[in-house]
Amino acid sequence: MSRSAKIGSLALILFGVLYLSSFVFASPFVGLEDGDNPASSLEFVRQHGNFFFLSGLCAVAAAVALIVGGLALADTVLQPPASLLGRTTATLGTLAAAFFFAHGVLRMNSIGLLPYIDGLNHDWGLAAYTVVHIAGTIGLASAGVFALSLWAIGVSLAGWRGHSLPKAMTALGFVPALPWVMGLLGHVWEMPEGLWLVYISSVLLGIPLWCAALGAALLRWKPSALSA
């Protein structure tokens, strides 16, 4: 395995850790009970802005790690690099990283601005948090997850076609896409509570675990495509 391929594999493992950390630092684990509630969430930002900042910082760092890992995969798994599948998959990975990067920067820059606006007018503060939440979590973060899901499918297809990934890893490529499949089905009929928990778990755990497993698999897997 080349040095760049090894660094890329480690970057994917790091991405999984940072991605999960970005959610943990803005979750009930640190006191944010309901991110959809502007009043309680704004108070959380005022009292515990360091956690909100760390959440954004982890998202930015995860985006950088994803770029490093994605570029390494473009040189190893996504072969031949000139193929439409390879170029499309690499672009989706970069697009996902861009969404996560923007989401993280938005959170990092909000910890000072939101309390300031709230100090001027409480209703303005609630509105400002709502904008940050919708643009960041609902918009940018969700777009990042969507692009990452498509990237994972592309990586799995390229790995299966070129025998550059273990078969088990390519078979699990659908895991990051579960949130969107279940989300689309949820618009057709009401999702049972049990499936809703699966949906949340696939977003919070399925994606980082798959990326970390992909990085670990590449460290141990030694096909001819990676040995150069």
Structural class: mainly alpha
Give start-end ranges of low-pLDDT stretches. Answer: 224-228
Main sheet: strands, sense, barrel: none
Radius of gyration: 19 Å
Portion of residues in helices? over 70%
Number of helices: 10
Beta strands, count = 0
Shape: globular
Integer average pLDDT: 86
The N- and C-terminal alpha carbons lie at a distance of: 6 Å
Q: Which percent range describes the beta-strand content?
A: under 5%
Q: Write the H/E string, N to C.
A: HHHHHHHHHH
Sequence-ordered SSE layout with sheet pairings:
Elements: H1 3-24, H2 38-47, H3 49-76, H4 84-108, H5 110-120, H6 122-162, H7 167-171, H8 178-188, H9 193-220, H10 224-227
Helix pairs in contact: 1-3, 1-9, 2-3, 2-6, 3-4, 4-6, 5-6, 8-9
How does this structure look, described?
The chain is mainly α and 228 residues long. 81% of the residues lie in helices and 0% in strands. It contains ten helices and no strands. The chain has helices at 3-24, 38-47, 49-76, 84-108, 110-120, 122-162, 167-171, 178-188, 193-220, 224-227. The longest helix has 41 residues, at 122-162. The chain is globular.
